Amino acid sequence: MRHVCMLAAMLVLIIGSAGAVRSAEIVRLVAGEGFYPQMFLERGQPRGYAIDIARAVLEEAGYDVHVEVLPWARAQIEMLKHGAVITGVSKTQDRIDAGFLFTDIVFSDPTVLIAKAGTTMGFETAGDLHGLVVGIQRGASYGPVFEAARPHMIIEEDDSKEQRLRKIVAGRIDLGVFSGTGPAYLLFASQSLGLSREEFKIFEKPLEFDLLHMAVSRDSPRADGMIEKLNSAIVKLTLDGTIERLHRAYGHGF
């Protein structure tokens, strides 16, 4: 009888534990499409270090995660209007005013300039970009240095880094702005688009380092509590090296 009681007690504990796991809150994590190697689709599956890092942070904070990769403008709307968490987003005053509530900094990426090989153009400061036709991702922000120089450039928007590279080769833009991109990305592009690394010039000096966050809607009833949990998880995963390991996993460095 004693053994039967012990078995029954164990079953209660197991069932209770399973119920606790099942009751974890499911969070929609949204990311931008076409931001290799940060966030992209590969054979229909979400990939990229901004996604991997955000998933790890959310799981450390106790959430179950469902990932969706969407056009960047739509991803921001899903966060603002429909309760999703967004990853790989830089903090700007416009976004704060729109209702973004940001976590602490999760990771940073260089903002890189790429032009057609053979260009005689030089780059030392943002002032060198004045008057140029510059390609950027639609809805993207690349940090305060770029934003301050934006009114002095002719901006050509697109929906992916791949479109930007094609415009560079075709001479439609003077250069493109890319976040988190190095030679590994150009190797990827040459394989997927039939382009060659030798067709491009990467300027060695980054425009700046873009500080990337996760964010939720300020109007969400769970916003403050969630941000507190996410910030605690970010600290833990920074200290134990998880974020750095995931950040380096795609070999995108210079």
TrEMBL record:
InterPro entries: Solute-binding_3/MltF_N
Signal peptide: none
Keywords: Signal
SUPFAM superfamilies: Periplasmic binding protein-like II
Residue ranges of every copy of the Solute-binding protein family 3/N-terminal domain listed in the record: 28-253
Stored Pfam families: SBP_bac_3
Annotated protein name in UniProt: Amino acid ABC transporter substrate-binding protein
